[in-house]
Structure formats: C-alpha cells, structure tokens
Design goal:
Elements: E1 2-4, E2 21-25, H1 26-35, E3 37-41, E4 44-47, E5 49-54, H2 61-70, E6 77-78, H3 83-96, E7 102-107, H4 111-114, H5 117-125, E8 130-136, E9 170-173, H6 180-191, E10 199-205, H7 206-210, E11 212-216, H8 217-220, E12 223-226, H9 234-246, E13 250-254, H10 256-260, H11 264-274, E14 278-280, E15 295-298, H12 305-313, E16 316-320, H13 326-329, E17 341-346, H14 349-352, E18 358-361, H15 364-374, H16 382-403, H17 413-423, E19 429-432, H18 437-444, E20 453-455, H19 464-475, E21 481-486, H20 487-492, H21 496-502, E22 508-513, H22 518-526, H23 559-565, E23 569-572, H24 576-586, E24 593-598, H25 623-636
Helix pairs in contact: 1-2, 3-5, 3-19, 11-15, 12-16, 17-18, 17-24
C-alpha cells in the first residue's frame, strides 16, 4: 500500500488531496515521480530509486535525457557502456538491497531497447525489481517508419518493445501523457511487491516523452510503499508444524527468500532449537554461516556430499524462499525417500504451491518465527543430529583438500576459489554468474555473512559478472567486492570496468582463463561430444579442435592487456602463491584491479551423488554418445514426478 505525503497532517487528521497541477513533459513528470518514491519495512524508510542508468539516442535524448538533465538534483544519472550491462547492474543493486531499492534504465528505440531484453529476463527470473524505460516509435506515426523501427505488414501497433512482454512482470506503452499516471502507479505496485516483483517495462514513444500535460501535484509528491510481513494461514501453519513434529529426518532448504526477508537470525534460532539441518540453494547460500554444525552447505546438482546424502534420506523437506529449480532438486532426483513430503514457506503463492507441499504463503522471517513457536520443545533424534555433524565434518575435510590441491601449474579452479576466499574479509562479497565457476563456488565458498555470496544462477547469464559486481559495489560501497569471471564471460561483457572506474567503485576482478568454455567442455565430454566447440583455437583442416584432437594453435588473445586498456590496474599470476601475492597487492590499489590467472580446464571439482538432466541423443553413430545415452537412461530411473 502506498501512502502519499499529503494523506495525513499534524494530529493525524486526513488532508484533502491537492487539486493543483504543474505543466511538465511526460518525461519530466516521470523523473520527478521516480525521485519521490520510497519504501518502508520494519519502520525503516528509504528511497526506492537510487538513480537512472541510460544510453541516449534519438529515441530518448530529447525526452528522458532532457528530463534527467533538468532534474539532476532529484535523480542521479549514471552512464553505462552497454544496455544489457546496465540492467544487470540495476538487478545486482536490487538484490544487494534485498529488493528494497533499484535503478531505472532508459534506452533509445531499436537495438538500444532490445539490448535490455537479456537483463530483463534475468531480473524477472531472479525475482528482483528493475524499471526499464525503452524509447519507442512515434505515437502519432507521422514520421513512420522512423529510424530503427520494426515494421510488420499485418500490424501497425507492434514495435520491438513488445518483445519485453514475455520477460516483464508488468508491461505498458504510454501512448498519451495522462496515461503515465496509472502506468507509473501500477509499475510501483509490482516493483515493490515481494511476491510479484521482477522487470517492469514502460515503453515510451519518443514524441509522447516530450509532450506537455498538466500533471496533478499529488502525483509528484512523496509516496511511501509499505512492505508488509504477511503470515500464512493458521490452519496451514498448524498442519506444517504437525508434519515437522512427526518427521524423523527433516531437512530445511534455504533459498534466496531467507536473505531477501533478512531471516537468517530467525532461521538460526529455529535450527539451534530443533537440530533440523540446513542445505542452501545458490540464491540462499549465506543464509547460515559456514562452520555451523547443522549447515550442510550447497544442495543439488552442485551440492556437497553432506547435503546430498541428507537430502536423499529426508522424509520431510522444508523449503524456505526457494523456487525449486532443477539444480536444487538435481532434476527431481535429490529427494529419494518414497514417502518424502514438503512444506514450502514462500511469499509468492506460485512458489509455495510447488511439489504439492503444504503451502505457507508468507514472509520468510515472520513465518519462521511462527514455526519456532509452534515447534517449541521439538528436537530431532540424537542419532540424526550426530549423523549430520559427521557428514558436515567430512565435507569440511573435502573442501580443504579441494582448495589446497597443489595442482599444476596451471592450478585448479578450486585452488583459486580457496585463495580468494582466504584473502576476502568476512563482509566481502564474491560475484559470479556462469560457467563452471558457480558450481564450484556453491560447494566451496565459505560464506560468513548473508550478503557475502552473490551468484546469479537463476538465468546463469554470461556477462553478468562485472556489471553485477558494479551493482553490488554501488549498493554496498563499504564492502570489498571480488568478481570471479571466466574468459568466456569476460569476452562477452567486460566494458563496465570503465564504469566502475568512472564511479570510483573499485572491484577486484579475478579473471580465470581456461582458454575456452570450460563448463560446457566438461558437459560436452559427459554427453559423448568430446569438448566440441569449446576451445579457442585456430581452424585446422576445417576443425576448431576437440579434447582428443587439440592440435590447433591457440589464439593470440591477451585478456589482461585488454583489461589494462579499459583502465584497470592489471596483475598477472601463474601460480596460487603468485595469486595470493596479487590479491594482497590489490588491496592497496584505489581503482578496479584485474588479476589474470590461467587454470587447468580439466581439473574441476567432482559432483557428489547427484545428477543433472541434459538429454542425450537417442541414436548416434558415435560410440561415446551411445555410451552416454545408456548412462542417461539409467540415471533417469531415479527421477520423481514433481507433483509428488
């Protein structure tokens, strides 16, 4: 619910809304509206929009661009290098702020707009708020077709911005200035909803942006959107508590909702009181500090041996703030007890109803506190508690082994993770997104703070890493930010290094160079395709090489030199000792640092009693593919139907 500044006066009396108007362009009114939006949770009020990212073109420079210039005193403009990247930065900022603040992002029409599509999809999938303001073609249609306009012979009202409908939680096209008022209010309703949030798109025809209208002053006044902590249905809560009390081997799966709701302390109290162990999803990693005796670590396809073994035996699974993705459920093979049932705590009804569980639709922190009261005196058996502690200790020894292998040179990626983890303060944040690194981080990173682990794995978007790291740093300038990025992702979207330097937002970027696409290379080998198309090689005899035929010369690419050309301070390392020295040296450098280190693309951490469903060709002339298909069919037998 939104409360306007004019709704109350001294003494609590209701004030009559102002009927005065102010003549502004649509763009000017929108900028002033955005600057006046605040949110409040637990009595703490803050601005919702930290500013607006934008790359200007003919579709927004005279509208939104002019308005940002004129009203720079109320809404700060930020200059990115790529439209996709600026959406990633806004999404990372919103995630770091627990969805209580974000950025707007403006683009021109055409390619500037469609460049934002990937970022929009990532924001919506990850349930984080971002406002997109793409310029659009003339509403008047007088200069039709305008530069960069998409034409369809069967429709006159379709533009490239219609493609945002599939990746937005709310979408509208403002064809008249007065339409801005309901569109902006609906946008805020969705952006501030903890259940519905994601990307919101307001397509703005370039002539409408510049058109003037007498806007009501009350539309532009301070507006506070309350973020409630709803509680689930009492009967559902009682049923959930009864199931937990009767379970012999319960397990909690902590998802991103635990962190967004700031529920880590509530989770800890419940775990300490009951002894129920906790496994963490990618988004939920950090919900409990590493080293707690009941913290099993990562679960699922990239899970630890401890978490996956307990998951296989669990007779009741309590999901808190999780979407139950295939990586969490190991493609529906993680939970193997024939009678396993589920309790789902989620602010979104859509997610709470998954896996046919008891749906506790409510805020994670408030619901966990209610559950703690309902489970007063409840505790797991000593034998189960002892088994959990034993498995946690076993995994800790395995983690130490993997991060201190003494491999190479080049070293193993797991050793790089260990060195960065050792160098990072407990409050530092590690940022990553795609490739083989997220799976290894999920297993191996020792999180000691709920906000210290920031891996975008809902969309697993290559190129998110550096742009996302910038968003984290803008949201928490007091924290050190370590970006772990592979050479494949770096080559896709590295240019926000420039923006980090412009904004004095220092990042420490560890550029892990495995000379190609290591993650998909490993997956390719597992499906019988010999690493095809995953190495950076010159073409030789018509081939770019495979694992068994790696005779082509390597490409003469120097990514460290590229980073230096973008303004970063560059350090090079060949060994883990050199990496440790570079990480220490980076602490005294004031601007963004890139540390380049090659790693062995074949020295990856193993999987632990888990599986990921990637269908393999049912027929093939290649023997390795035929063997992989046999293994695939065998693994599929363990899959459970998701509605059970």
């Amino acid at each position: 619910m939104a409360i306007r500044e004019s709704d109350t006066v001294e003494g609590g009396a209701t004030a009559r809304p102002s009927t005065a108007t102010v003549r502004l362009t649509t763009a000017q009114a929108l900028v002033r509206f955005l600057a006046a939006q605040h949110v409040e949770r637990d009595g703490v009020q803050q601005r919702f929009f930290a500013g607006c990212f934008g790359i200007f073109g003919h579709g927004n420079v005279a509208g939104i661009g002019q308005a940002l210039h004129q009203h720079s005193d109320v809404l700060t403009y930020y200059q990115p290098r790529n439209e996709q990247a600026m959406v990633h930065t806004a999404a990372a900022y919103a995630r770091m702020k627990n969805r209580l603040a974000t950025f707007a992002c403006t683009s021109s029409i055409g390619p500037g707009a469609t460049n934002m599509l990937t970022g929009a999809a990532g924001a919506t999938i990850n349930r984080v708020p971002v406002l997109l303001l793409p310029g659009d073609v003339f509403a008047s249609r007088l200069p039709d077709p305008v530069l960069q306009q998409l034409e369809l012979p069967t429709r006159g009202d379709v533009t490239v911005n219609d493609s945002f409908q599939a990746v937005s939680r709310y979408w509208d096209r403002v064809q008249r200035p007065e339409q801005l008022i309901p569109a902006a209010l609906e946008s805020m309703r969705v952006l501030t909803s903890q259940a519905e949030t994601g990307a919101v798109t307001l397509a703005l025809p370039q002539d409408v942006q510049a058109e003037a209208f007498d806007f009501p002053r009350e539309f532009l006044e301070l507006r506070v959107w309350r973020i409630p902590r709803p509680l689930p249905d009492r009967d559902a809560l009682a049923e959930a508590a009864a199931r937990i009390r009767s379970a012999r081997r319960p397990l909690i799966v902590a998802g991103g909702g635990v962190i967004y709701s700031e529920a880590s302390e509530s989770l800890l109290r419940l775990v300490d009181a009951t002894g129920i162990p906790v496994a963490e999803t990618q988004a939920g990693k950090g919900s409990m500090a590493y080293g707690h005796a009941s913290n099993l670590g990562a679960i699922g396809a990239s899970g630890t041996s401890a978490a996956n073994r307990i998951a296989a035996e669990a007779d009741l699974v309590i999901g808190v703030g999780t979407r139950w993705t295939d990586f969490t459920t190991a493609s529906q093979t993680a939970f193997r007890d024939p009678g396993v049932s589920f309790v789902n705590v989620n602010v979104a009804e859509f997610d709470a109803a998954k896996r046919a569980g008891v749906a506790l639709v409510g805020d994670a922190r408030a619901t966990l506190d209610e559950l703690s009261g309902a489970l007063d005196g409840q505790s797991v058996d000593d034998d189960y508690r002892d088994r959990v502690h034993e498995l946690v200790d076993d995994w800790d020894r395995e983690l130490i082994r993997l991060t201190t292998l003494g491999h190479g040179p080049p070293p193993a990626q797991s050793e790089v993770i260990g060195a960065v983890n050792d160098a990072a303060a407990p409050t530092a944040v590690v940022v990553c997104a795609a490739g083989s690194m997220p799976g290894e981080l999920h297993k191996l990173w020792r999180s000691r703070d709920p906000k210290s682990y920031h891996v975008e794995y809902g969309y697993s978007c290559m190129g998110y890493e550096i742009a996302g790291g910038l968003g984290v740093k803008l949201a928490a300038p007091e924290r050190d930010v370590y970006v772990l990025v592979g050479d494949g992702s770096y080559l896709m979207l590295a240019q926000e290094i420039v923006t980090s330097i412009q904004e004095d937002a220092k990042l420490t970027i560890v550029l892990v160079d495995n000379d190609g696409f290591s993650s998909i290379g490993s997956l390719s080998r597992s499906v019988g395709s010999d690493g095809f198309g995953t190495m950076y090689r010159y073409r030789r005899d018509g081939s770019l090489g495979t694992d068994s035929d790696d005779s082509g010369a390597r490409l003469p690419v120097d990514l460290a030199a590229n980073a230096a050309s973008l303004g970063a301070h560059v350090l090079r390392a060949e060994t883990i000792d050199e990496l440790r020295d570079a990480l220490e040296a980076a602490k005294s450098v004031e601007r963004t640092v890139v540390i380049h280190i090659p790693v062995d693309r074949y020295a990856l951490a193993p999987s632990y009693e888990t599986w990921w469903d990637v269908p393999i060709a049912e027929v093939s002339d290649v023997e390795s593919v035929e063997r992989a298909r046999v293994d695939y069919e065998r693994s599929r037998r363990d899959q459970r139907r998701p509605w059970r």
